[in-house]
Design a protein that fits this description.
8-stranded parallel sheet, GLI/LigI, binds 2-oxo-2H-pyran-4,6-dicarboxylic acid, 11 helices, alpha/beta, globular
Length: 306
């Protein structure tokens, strides 16, 4: 099937630079996607955008170039609850990728088990209005109860202003809960203001909640952009991400977010995004937890000793 990209769509950056920051051995890119290719894995009829293709081979090439050892591939909303592209990527990764799927309540136990065997370890619940029509909370809670039995976790994507309304639902989830992109703080607001304080409180009150400290390129309002060798990109996001890493060093994950769906302003050089990491995780110990220990504990627990 031929797909027409959403007008204004920015394609992922070709030929990223070699990062100056040397990733620790075993580093995991814990948030990235595959898109199609549409001819093989058609985009879902209910999607809110049509992306460029971004194949598993292209993702694995990026992984190798940047110096990551593994990926966690997250089902992108343009594929709805059709997880074929994700499962295909996992099955062709030589065990170097695990996944987060999107499922509906009609999924069978056999299908869940087949996903588990392919490497799925979580489901994603999305509350961002421009990306999905919401699934009712009772359906999500039912799914959470079922996947908890497989030892999976729930990944949630929402915007900071919606946290108060979603707080009780999130707190009632029976699994580990991973927040995408720090719950999308408005970084023009003060670091110590009520909105971000609420997010930190949410993590303090719920020790099962983790956060991805990813997507500075989405959150930044001032830049500078991760392009043209910039070594101090997205400075306005740094204090927010660093605060989360320093307060919750054992509950943070990092990912490129390649191929960066829906960016409107610019497409970052992924090599320079890697160079952003030491600004938010300033010590080798914090870097090792963020990039190796934490993602292994969540996605490859059978390989963690002790
Ligand atoms: O902010 C976004 O547009 C976005 C979209 C998706 C998706 O469509 O799955 O995933 C992300 O992590 C971020």
């Amino acid at each position: 099937m031929q797909f027409q990209k959403t007008p204004g769509w920015l394609d992922w950056y070709q030929g990223p630079s070699q990062p100056k920051f040397q990733l620790p051995a075993g580093a995991v890119d814990a948030h990235c996607h595959v898109f199609g290719p549409g001819e093989e894995f058609p985009y879902a009829p209910e999607r809110k955008y049509t992306p460029c293709d971004a194949s598993k081979q292209q993702l694995f090439a990026l992984r190798d170039q940047l110096g990551f050892e593994r990926n966690v591939i997250v089902q992108a909303t343009c594929h709805g609850a059709d997880n074929r592209a994700l499962l295909d990527a996992l099955l062709h990764s030589d065990g170097k990728a695990r996944g987060v799927a999107t499922v509906r309540r009609d999924i069978s136990d056999e299908q869940l088990q087949a996903m588990h065997d392919a490497g799925v370890r979580g489901v994603r619940f999305n509350f961002v209005k421009r990306l999905v029509d919401f699934t009712p909370k009772d359906e999500l809670m039912e799914i959470a109860g079922r996947i908890a039995k497989l030892g999976w976790h729930v990944v949630i994507y929402f915007e900071a202003v919606d946290l108060p309304e979603l707080w009780d639902f999130f707190s009632g989830l029976p699994t580990t809960v991973v927040v995408d992109h720090m719950g999308r703080p408005d970084v023009s607001k003060p670091l110590d203001g009520p909105e971000f304080a609420l997010f930190l409180q949410f993590m303090r009150d719920n020790p099962n909640v983790w956060s991805k400290v990813s997507c500075p390129e989405r959150l930044s309002l001032t830049g500078p952009k991760a392009l043209a060798g910039e070594q101090a990109a997205y400075r306005d996001v740094v204090p927010f991400a660093r605060r989360v890493v320093e307060e919750f060093p054992d509950r943070v994950l990092w990912g490129t977010d390649w191929p960066h769906p829906n960016l409107k302003d610019h497409m970052p050089d992924d090599g320079l995004l890697v160079d952003f990491i030491p600004h938010i995780a300033p010590t080798p110990e914090l870097q090792h937890k963020l990039l190796v220990d934490n993602p292994l504990r969540l996605y490859w627990p059978e390989q963690v000793k002790g």
